[in-house]
């Protein structure tokens, strides 16, 4: 199973490392030091920009799906009234089937808000595998992804604000554990705050005035609190380089949702 997962992730690791190295090569060509942590940090930010720009069509499709979900709400409310108080198995099954028919008719589903996150997940996992494996690869004198052994060693030795990019709260840091802890906590707070405010904007735009018993409203409230918890808990094991990726990505999402909310 592990071998199969690694085979599935190999193309994503290759793509993630190719994009990072392309930005790294461009930055060194204009005079930035190849071994600088800031050069590698900007390379990671460049990776975010490429992936998120590629996901703009998916985001626009998500916005359209959310609009269709709003139009669907009167029909859903009518359906809930129809089956109100009916708790037998046949009624519950009939209600679920009619709900699915409504979603199909309107060309949407209650999980459309999660689509960009799901699509981005393989790239995030690939970056996590590359950056968390760099120290081991460097120690063995090996490369990882498309990084050569020299580039892996170079990345492993790089840092910003005294915190190695390959270190995390739980692993690595050496004598710089305090710097790692401070930078990691700041970015975990930043990325969870961005996620929380983004979800608030989504709810304010699409669910204002809705019935508290609305299933879509309940789903959005769950996402409002669950996603920041997931990001916060995961941040403990994420290398600093991955935290940079996720913080910038969440900031992009926040700005993107803010612009959409303003135009609504």
UniProtKB/TrEMBL annotation:
UniProt keyword Magnesium present: no
GO BP terms, alphabetized: protein insertion into membrane; protein transport
Localization per record: Cell membrane; Membrane
Pfam families: 60KD_IMP
Keywords tagged on the record: Cell membrane, Chaperone, Membrane, Protein transport, Transmembrane, Transmembrane helix, Transport
Bilayer-spanning residue ranges: 12-32, 38-61, 110-131, 178-197, 222-246
One GO term describing the cellular component: plasma membrane
Membrane topology: Multi-pass membrane protein
GO molecular function annotation: membrane insertase activity
InterPro entries listed in its UniProt record: YidC/ALB3/OXA1/COX18 (IPR001708), YidC/Oxa/ALB_C (IPR028055), YidC_ALB_C (IPR047196)
Domain Membrane insertase YidC/Oxa/ALB C-terminal span(s) in chain numbering: 40-261
Subunit structure: Interacts with the Sec translocase complex via SecD. Specifically interacts with transmembrane segments of nascent integral membrane proteins during membrane integration.
Family note: Belongs to the OXA1/ALB3/YidC family. Type 1 subfamily.
Known role: Required for the insertion and/or proper folding and/or complex formation of integral membrane proteins into the membrane. Involved in integration of membrane proteins that insert both dependently and independently of the Sec translocase complex, as well as at least some lipoproteins. Aids folding of multispanning membrane proteins.
NCBIfam families: PRK01315.1, yidC_oxa1_cterm
Protein name: Membrane protein insertase YidC
Organism: Arthrobacter nitrophenolicus
Phylogenetic lineage: Bacteria, Bacillati, Actinomycetota, Actinomycetes, Micrococcales
